[in-house]
Amino acid sequence: MGQRTLSQYLGAVQTASRRRLSGRRFRKNVVRMLATAVALMGLVAILFPIAWMLSSSLKTKFGVFKVPPIWIPRDPQWSNYVDALTFNPFHLYLKNTLYYAGTVTLGQLLSCSFIAFGFARLRAPGRDMFFAIMLSTMMLPSQVTIIPQYILFAKLGWLNSFKPLIVPSFFGSAYLIFLLRQFYMGISREIDDAARIDGCGYFGIWWRIIVPLSKPALGAVAILTFMWNWNNYMGPLIYINSNEKFTLSLGLQMFRAPFGGTAYHWLMAASVVTVLPCVVIFFIAQRQFIQGIVITGLKG
Amino acid sequence: MKAKLLTLMAVVTVLGIVFAACAPATPMIIEKEVIKEVEVEKEVIVEKEVPVEVEKIVEKEVEKIVEKEVIKRVEVEKEVVVTAAPAPQETVRIVWLVRTNPVENKWEQEIVKPAFEARHPNIKLDILIVDQDDIPIKLEGIIAAGEPLDVWCSSWGAGGPPEVGHLMMDLTPLIEREEYDMGDFVPEIVQIFVRQGKLLGLPLLSVPTFTYYNMDIFDEAGIPYPPLDWDDDDWTWDAMLDLAKQLTHDYGDPVEGQYGLWTQIRIEDPGFIWGKNVFNEEVFDTGFADEVYLEDPVIERAYQLRHDLMYKEKVMPEAGIMDALNQLGGAFQSGKMAMLLGGGWGHWVYRGIEEEEDGFCWGAAPVPKGEPGIFQLNEIYSDPWVITKGTPNVEAAWTFLKYVTSLEASRSYMQSTGTPPTRRSLLEEYFELYPCMGAEKMKKVYMGGVEHGVEQMFQWVKGYPELHSTFNNRMAELWLDPDATAAEVLPVVDAELEDLLKRIREEHE
After folding, report:
1. What are the CA-CA distances from residue A190 to residues A117, A166, A193, A197, A282 (Å)?
2. B41 close to A (CB below 8 A)
């Protein structure tokens, strides 16, 4: 009786536990489904403009304006891609943008990591004050500095060249220096000491220890810088005065026209081609990018 | 160790400069005087406190530099005009600033440039293409820095003579010197660019305002098209409203919705339909508008009637619907709009819709009269080519200006873009471009528009861009609120605009 009671008791406990488990599983599944549904809705919202861009790139000039929109054109206009890319010297814009964005990225990587190393690892009087001053430059809106900078570059005779866009990147960016400094602060100082005992100097510590250890953060910096400059419109607009030196962001504007005359079908075709390099770079480097973003605390 | 660090920093810096220097660069000529002036201006800027309204400060600082540059250039120009040879012999490069527009740009790059350079081998034409919205900042920047710029259009984003008149060269001495024949240009259009007896530009295009209509929508409804005669007393606001009511269905439905009418709104538009200008007459002489007549009962009623189109009559899409239609490219082009009362750029923007699959035929009709017997007005939009005051390439720029406005170039511009010509000898040919409506009908409507036209007010009013921006922002209270009335909103806007006009006058006097 007693055994039966115990067995029954254990059975009941097991059943209750199973129920609880299945209840928990059910709740977990429901939450997961809801989360998936929300994520899917977000995905649709994010993909909507991309789908519109792809769809419009295959429509006729006035087919873009149809209401309700026709998502899959009956007669896809693949020639839009050829027309859009040959209407202006797109290959030249691409070359210019690669040169400009690539060089700026290199400049930022070198300068920011080096300056951040100094702020994070070296002790010097007034270091924190200088760091605070550097951070305060982030508070200045770019519109305030645009005129003095323009005058400076005009005096140097650098207008209508890439120099005003590229050279400043070799002197660091407050935001990226801050980002890298935070990362470097997280690397144990004992490694520096060990390296120093092995005969490493400051430069050696930076180049042989810190840089290899901070690849994710440097990857994030590289991708952010490349994308910002790939899409930069204002800088090239102000400093570049000849079509041969235009970047892609300026080239895309060429399809715009006042009073609703914009050639959207070409604009969208050119936009598809323009975003492709960024998408490819992101997919290739996404692991490092996300890792870098998480480690440096850049997210939200 | 520290020495190594310093060395490395120096190497990185030099590396950066070398990289940048490797970029292909066009040699730039900056005169020493310009640099001196720029130095002075820089000091002024550095001494200033951080501005609150950054954009305004930026504009003012640039204006100061530009003005100084212009004063210097005027002196150069005087000498050049007097002593210049009829045609330059050395190879000269001139810069032609144009707006982004795929159709126009094709004409400029593939027709004008090769043809002009073939005829004038000693003049090379550099075309700089900039989005119309960005032209003001580009224009002032280029001139302030002494970068080359020779020929451009003062209406494309630049604000016309009131805003950039000081940058436009007086063409009168050149025309008189050569006894240049202006007889073929429409005289009324040429007159727009004459200020204090100086001709500041040669006309490129000029278009009145029209009531554009979708012929297919009218045909489907079995309704006759609007009339062609601007003096037809039956073509009134009420007649247009009546048509709009018949042609509107499924109002607000994003898929099925069709709208009878949309009217453009600039400060002067509603009053023009009733034959009234919202600005005083003095503005045409002085460039300063001291008051606006938004509180005039007729103008106030005109604004209220436009509000009623949306919220009472339900024939005109509300702002949200209109934005949605425009974001897809264009409300009229979507085929969902029966009539659109707007600027004559429709003549080239809508050209070719009829040839598309699922396209439609469209026509142009007069702007309606507010009431029978009224002489309604409409805005004429005119764009001139101008030469930069003080350019060292006056002769080359003048040679180009004559070519780009010649009969040959005007014809190719008209044929390539569908833009109305400013030469009388091309008008007949132009009207043939519109097969749906037919040449005779198009001619009647177009010429009536010219007769009833008043040049757009931004060509006359000093500070118009700022005025219009303020007007648009404040008028949102009326256009976005179904319960708002013109009688409540307009007095407030009127007072605010007059304060603004007063400030503009004080700043310029």
Report:
1. 15, 37, 5, 11, 34
2. yes
For chain B, what percent of residues have pLDDT higher than 70? 82
Answer yes or no: are the C-beta atoms of B397 and B381 closer than 8 Å: no
CB atoms within 10 A of CB A300: 4
Q: Look at the alpha carbons of A79, A81, A82, A87 in this order and tell me if their dihedral is positive or negative.
A: positive
Residue A196 touches partner B, C-beta closer than 8 Å: no
Chain A hits for B353, Cβ within 8 Å:
62
Cα separation, A266 vs A60, whole angstroms: 9
Contact A166 B356 (CB under 8 A): no
Give the residue from chain A lying closest to B101, CA to CA.
A257
Q: Which of B131, B323, B351, B388 to mutate to test the interface with A (most CBs of A within 10 A)?
A: B131
Q: Are A245 and A218 within 8 A, CB to CB?
A: no
* Alpha-carbon gap: A32 to the closest alpha carbon of chain B (Å): 34
Chain A residues inside the 8 Å CB shell of B18: none
* Of A261 and A152, the one with more pLDDT: A152
DSSP string, B191-227: HHTEETTEE--EEEEEE-EEEEEEHHHHHHHT-PPP-
> Residue A52: left (phi > 0), alpha (psi -120 to 50), or beta?
alpha
The angle formed by the CA atoms of residues B92, B155 and B405, to the nearest 5 degrees, is: 50
> Picking from A155-159, A274-278, B69-73, B185-189, which range would have the lowest pLDDT averaged per residue?
B69-73
pTM of the model: 0.78
Cβ-based contacts of A60 with chain B (< 8 Å): 356-357
The residue of chain B nearest to residue A115, with distances taken between CA atoms, is: B9
Query: Rounded distance, CA B190 to CA B186, Å?
Result: 7
CB B269 within 8 A of CB B277: no
User: Which one of A66, A144, A157 has the shortest CB-CB distance to B30?
Assistant: A157
- Token pair in block for residue A43: 């995905």
CB-based contact (8 Å) between A125 and chain B?
no
